[in-house]
User: Fold this.
Amino acid sequence: MSDQQIRAASRTVNRDRYSVASFFNPNYNYQVACLPTSLAEGATPLYPPCPMGEHIKDMFERTYGRKAATAA
Assistant:
């Protein structure tokens, strides 16, 4: 989470392209955080750690503009 990763080059030409991240049965409480090895010496992460479930819920709400259903 240091915004230093380079994405793979696209081989599509003049086509619509959609990317979808898929998480199959993630641990809702798993803490997602920047790996220390991906930071330059003395640098701090650009994003705070967060639980996986909260991240997925937040991305759903940002993408679709509505609240995600919560588990009972």
